[in-house]
Design a protein that fits this description.
alpha/beta; six-stranded parallel beta sheet; 11 helices
C-alpha cells in the first residue's frame, strides 16, 4: 500500500520532531511548517494527501493556512492536531475546512489511522470533540455569539479566561502561562470589561455555557 504523504505544521520544533519519530515510518513526511508562511509554502511544494495542522500558529493561526491553501488547492485535506479541546477551536477549524480534529494525546497508531481515514475522505474526531460539532449543528451551542464575543479577546486573554473558568487561582494561571500575577489580573479585568461581566463567577458561568472549558 502506498504511504500517505503528510505535511506537519506546528510552531514547536520538538513536537514536529516527535511526530516525525512516531509516525515517520508509517507515512511519508514531505514537509514541515512552523508558522502560516512556512506552512503554506511546504504544503504547496509537498502536495500532501493530508496536512497535520496545529490550531494556534504565528501569523494568523491554522484557519489562515487553510484559507490560503484552499484558494489555490481546494483538494488538500487538513486534520487538526492540537492541545486545545475548546469548542471554539474545534468548530472554528471545521468551519474553515478541516476534515477532522484530534488532540495531541492521541497515540501514533491512532494518528496514522486518522490520517488514512481523512485521506480517504472520512471525517475524524476525538470522541469528546465530535460532541461539540454535533451540538453546533443542532443549535445547542450558539456559535455565532461565541465567535463574536471571542473575537474581542486576544489570544492571551482567551488562555487566561479558560484557566480562570477551570478554577485556577491567579498564581496558578501565572505559573501555567509564565507571566506575572499582576499581568493575570490585568488580563482578567480586560476580559470582564470586554464581555461585560462583573466577576470571575460570572466569567466561569459564561465560559461553561459556551463549552469553552
Amino acid at each position: 500500500m502506498t504511504q500517505r504523504r503528510v505535511v506537519v505544521v506546528d510552531d514547536h520544533d520538538m513536537f514536529r520532531a516527535g511526530v516525525r519519530s512516531e509516525i515517520g515510518t508509517a507515512v511519508e513526511i514531505v514537509g514541515e511548517g512552523s508558522d502560516v508562511d512556512t506552512a503554506v509554502k511546504a504544503i504547496i511544494a509537498g502536495e500532501p494527501d493530508v496536512v497535520l495542522l496545529d490550531v494556534h500558529l504565528p501569523g494568523g493561526g491554522g484557519t489562515e493556512v487553510m484559507k490560503q491553501v484552499h484558494q489555490r488547492h481546494p483538494e488538500v485535506k487538513f486534520l487538526a492536531l492540537s492541545v486545545s479541546d475548546a469548542a471554539e477551536d474545534v468548530i472554528g477549524v471545521i468551519r474553515a475546512g478541516a476534515r477532522g480534529y484530534v488532540t495531541k494525546n492521541i497515540s501514533g497508531t491512532e494518528l496514522v489511522d486518522a490520517i488514512g481515514r481523512v485521506a480517504d475522505g472520512d471525517a475524524v474526531f476525538s470522541p469528546r470533540l465530535a460532541g461539540f460539532v454535533l451540538d453546533a449543528f443542532s443549535g445547542a451551542i450558539d456559535i455565532a455569539s461565541v465567535d463574536e464575543d471571542l473575537d474581542r479577546l486576544s489570544q492571551r486573554e482567551r488562555e487566561v479566561l479558560r484557566l480562570i473558568a477551570r478554577g485556577y487561582a491567579y498564581k496558578e494561571v501565572a505559573r501555567e502561562l509564565f507571566i506575572s500575577v499582576k499581568t493575570v489580573e490585568t488580563h482578567v479585568s480586560s476580559v470582564l470589561r470586554k464581555l461585560q461581566l462583573s466577576n470571575r463567577h460570572e466569567l466561569t458561568r459564561w465560559a461553561t455555557d459556551r463549552r469553552l472549558v
